Amino acid sequence: MKKIVLSVLLLLVAGAVAAGESLTVRLVRARQGKSDGPSPGLEDVAPALERNLAYGNFRVVASATLPLPADGSQRRIGAYDVVCSGPQDDLAIEVTAGGRPVIRTRVVLRDGKPLIVGGLGSAEGGRMMFVFESVAGRSRR
Amino acid sequence: MKTSLSGVSPERGHVGSVMPAAEFWGKFRDRAERLPRQSPRIGTGGLGYASLVAAGIACVVLVGAVSLTKTQRSPAAGSEVTSLDVQTAYSGILVMKDPAATIIWVMGMEPEDAGGDT
Question: What is the ipTM score, two decimals?
């Protein structure tokens, strides 16, 4: 009985220690005009986007989830290549398009507080933006 | 009610063979010393209650420390940009701090070849 109780306690501690953070990256296209309704996958940031930007239609084009600290590997997100490296309180992000660097930035990401970097032009119209957010819990690939 | 003891003889050992107290307790102690003894387990071997309680307290402290560390990394302030380098032509940068999100908007960026959905 004692061993079972001790094992449960150890498992609880191991779970608390092992539960890490992950970084979600969403590529969003903003267009003029009214949206048909809440954009799927954007429910958390859509109100902030609508309050602050002169666009009414937001749609997730692609997304990825990376472990934190980011390992610096290159991810293809939509038509962009994104490289993230470092911990969430000093995360380096580099976005390239067609092999050409577009944006390089360092950010402090706080849990549940998305950071949106946008304004990228798109040949298909509208503007593109990246939504970076750190999420507590096990990382998913 | 009266009980008759007339039928009980001393030879049968029921009455009349009373042992002196000192002798009785001496024999009792002799017999007791010959029996195997079991010492109390608490604190002497394996995981007693004391070590179990100590392990529980250690677990609670460790879980609390992990939770506190995570909470301290999540203050009310939003996410922020510490440096930004835009490597294409642009006309300006807007920083919008909304309670729900921080928005960095680069204005006047030229369309990229890679702006498509694929």
Answer: 0.81
